[in-house]
Design brief:
Elements lengths: L14 E2 L4 E9 L3 E8 L4 E8 L3 H20 L12 E9 L2 E9 L1 E4 H7 L7 H22 L1 E2 L8 E4 L3 H9 L30 H7 L7 H30 L25 E3 L6 E2 L16 H5 L6 H16 L14 H13 L5 H4 L5 H4 L17 H8 L6 H8 L13 H5 L2 H4 L1
Antiparallel strand pairs: 1-2, 2-3, 3-4, 4-6, 5-6, 7-9, 8-11, 9-10
The structure holds adenosine-5'-triphosphate (ATP) and magnesium ion (MG) (2 copies).
């Protein structure tokens, strides 16, 4: 990707924007850019510089991202959600050997929520921390939706970053970086492998497999025990499988060098946690005609899969998926294709299994891809046998902490309404008791 139209090859110590910024460390990278720690000689502090790939497509995308970020920066600094969205400080263009690169300057942030999930070994981040994070993301989303007229469209743990309150001290203590100094042996993380392992064989109906086991001659109780054991084993496999995919999908540096807890596992460290919604690279205006494919698979809403017109409510679907994942360490939806149905089929089936048959005719009959998934009665075409299981049961199975299960179910349910007209907005969710108890 370090070629004409691709990433800019950065060398530690490089100066950008007529000597204003000096590059010091690589902070991360994505499909469109590399992100660097730099010293800003004008404001005399450290910043994060996102250097975008140079081809016309990426440049155009970056310009749209800047327009959205400028709207966010200028709309209402007094809004409580303002501080929960990463703010653009500056932007410019940089000419390099691979072309002209748009550069965006942000305040330096720390690790992503995915790294937090990993830190807690995929067993769930403590509820007290998740409640804080959820409240702040809701404030940020409300600001984006209602005040800025913006839909994020790619809300997921990777795109919510932890604020680092004392960047300058941290850089001094941990890396011995003072002001514009650079580290003599700066780590180079040019590991840009991104195996998008998206094609995993899946099986929809787990009971069918359980039924294939030879249970002849066993008592009812023995059968029950065997079934339970097999189920547990399969779920275990499924779980580790999805984590493996996860690691592959995110070759990115998720455990940031700017982990503000310095690896401390003590929950009290997180009592000052502040998070910010980042990566507006896929965001769009609420006033636009929104029908194109958005969101990362696991966080994708039903209306998007079905090809209906979507609204800002699609972000709340993603938020519910993200909160579930923070609490349990597992994806809420992790669809797989089979020879008989597609990954999208499985995804929609899992949604219906969880939330009931509540898709309106607008979605089952009248949307662009309705006919691919549903017959004219609104029943699924390729998956006949649905295994309904409600959210409360799923939480009971996966949420180790297990506290306030009823309240938590009640909190998540409005965000997971299949009909986005019935789905609650950020403000309504913010007042729910689960966040405040
Ligand atoms: P994507 O493929 O996710 O769309 P992208 O090219 O749009 O990637 P970002 O997601 O904005 O890039 O940033 C890439 C990575 O850089 C992030 O995952 C994060 O690790 C790091 N990063 C981004 N912004 C900051 C920041 N302000 N401070 C510290 N690190 C950052
Ligand atoms: Mg990103
Ligand atoms: Mg992006």
């Amino acid at each position: 990707d370090y070629k004409q139209g691709g990433y800019h090859r950065v060398i530690i110590g490089d100066m950008l924007q007529d000597g204003r910024y000096k590059i010091q460390l690589k902070l991360g990278w994505g499909h469109f850019s590399t992100v660097w720690l730099a010293y800003d000689f004008r404001s005399e502090r450290h910043v994060a510089v996102k250097i975008v790939k140079s081809s016309r497509r990426f440049t155009q995308g970056a310009k749209e991202e800047i327009a959205l970020l400028e709207k966010i920066h200028s709309t209402n600094p007094n809004s409580p959600g303002y501080q929960h969205v990463a703010q653009l400080l500056d932007h410019f263009e940089h000419d390099g050997e691979n072309g002209t690169h748009v550069c965006m300057v942000f305040e330096v942030l720390g690790e992503s929520l995915l790294s937090l999930i990993k830190r807690f070994k995929y067993r769930g981040v403590p509820a007290a921390v998740v409640k804080k994070v959820a409240m702040q993301v809701l404030l940020g989303l409300d600001y984006l939706h209602r005040e800025c007229g913006i839909i994020h469209t790619d809300l997921k743990p990777e795109n919510v970053l932890v604020y680092v309150p004392n960047v300058e001290t941290l850089l001094q203590e941990r890396f011995h970086i003072h002001g514009p100094d650079t580290l003599p042996n700066a780590p180079d993380n040019n590991n840009n492998n991104n195996n998008n392992n998206d094609n995993v064989d899946g099986d929809h109906d787990k009971t069918a497999i359980l039924d294939q086991v030879d249970t002849k001659g066993l008592t009812k109780n023995q059968k029950k025990k065997l079934r339970k054991k097999l189920k547990k084993k399969m779920e275990g496999q499924k779980r580790s499988q999805s984590h493996r995919n996860r690691e592959n999908k995110n070759g990115q540096i998720t455990s940031s060098i700017l982990d503000f807890t310095a690896g401390d596992q003590n929950i009290s460290v997180y009592e000052n946690i502040v998070v910010k919604i980042a990566d507006l690279g896929n965001a769009c205006w609420t006033k636009d005609e929104c029908v194109h494919l958005i969101q990362t698979r696991e966080y994708r809403s039903p209306e998007v899969i079905i090809g209906a017109r979507w609204t800002e409510k699609t972000d709340l679907w993603s938020l519910a998926c993200m909160i579930f994942e923070l609490l349990t360490g597992e994806f809420l939806f992790d669809p797989r294709p089979s020879s008989k149905y597609s990954k999208d089929d499985d995804h929609i089936a899992q949604m219906i299994e969880l939330m009931g048959d509540k898709l309106p005719p607008r979605l089952t009959l009248d949307s662009e891809f309705s006919h691919e998934f549903f017959d004219r009665h609104g029943h699924m075409k390729h998956i006949k046998k649905l295994r309904y299981r409600d959210l409360h049961d799923v939480l009971e199975e996966t949420y180790r902490d297990g506290h306030q299960l009823d309240l938590l179910t009640e909190f998540l349910t409005p965000m997971l309404q299949l009909d986005d007209n019935d789905r609650a907005g950020a403000v309504a969710i913010m007042n729910h008791a689960w966040l405040h108890e």
